[in-house]
């Protein structure tokens, strides 16, 4: 007959052994850099016992939580590294207010096939028509597919290249910009470039042709790009590369921001 004192001793021994096992598992998880498994294995073990899971199912649940958490951190890191001016998703874009913008095409692009095919995307329209929002939304979608993305104004890129050249670091700068799966060049057309800047930009574009993807936003039709790139031959060569196999999307001339401001004033005046 088992006495109560013996039962208590067995329970205490079992608890000590369980605590030692838990500590060992956590130690192994730290050594293998599996922090999510280390944090979740006890809870998932209780769930497995409660639902009568097999050992293999329990292992699959453990590994699945680790993979999901790593993917979440990767996406967060990709979005941070993209340096978006604002976090604006495609879901936030009001396609109903801009019916001329092809929503089906935008959503198809967001699926990412254009990235694998290195097909450029050109967003052309006046200020306030949603070019930067759409570019940001596509950039976020690419980050969610764990692509390396960088968002920059074209003036910012040219300034970086000119400075790198001045310090004899141009090769390193070009290599850095070439590493991105998607490079978003915002605001082409707002600032004209000197010959040196235009040539450096051409180098970046030329090196990415048919190899990595560009998204470009511009307020100028192609016929007016010589206002920004005064060398007509260089301008023609640049356009030839960025329009090859490109998705060209016109966002129109009516400013969405201006409409929103006017509607807000009307609503305020009606109160």
The arrangement of helices and strands along the chain is HHHHHEHEHHEHEHEH
Query: Would you give the CATH topology of the largest domain?
Result: Rossmann fold
CATH uppermost class of the largest domain = Alpha Beta
Gap between N and C termini, in Å?
86 Å
Nearest-integer average pLDDT: 90
Radius of gyration (Å): 27 Å
Produce a short descriptive summary.
By secondary structure, the chain is of the alpha/beta class. 60% of the residues lie in helices and 11% in strands.
Write the layout of secondary structure elements.
Blueprint: H1 4-32, H2 35-50, H3 55-82, H4 103-110, H5 113-116, E1 121-125, H6 131-144, E2 149-153, H7 154-166, H8 170-178, E3 182-188, H9 195-208, E4 213-218, H10 232-243, E5 247-252, H11 256-270
Parallel strand pairs: 1-4, 1-5, 2-3, 3-4
Helix pairs in contact: 1-2, 2-3, 3-6, 7-8, 7-9, 9-10
Question: How would you describe this structure to a colleague?
Answer:
The chain has a five-stranded parallel sheet. It is built from eleven helices and five strands, in the order H-H-H-H-H-E-H-E-H-H-E-H-E-H-E-H. With 271 residues, it is α/β, with parallel strands linked by helices. The protein has two domains: 4-81, no CATH class; 83-262, Rossmann fold, CATH 3.40.50.300. It has helices at 4-32, 35-50, 55-82, 103-110, 113-116, 131-144, 154-166, 170-178, 195-208, 232-243, 256-270; strands at residues 121-125, 149-153, 182-188, 213-218, 247-252.
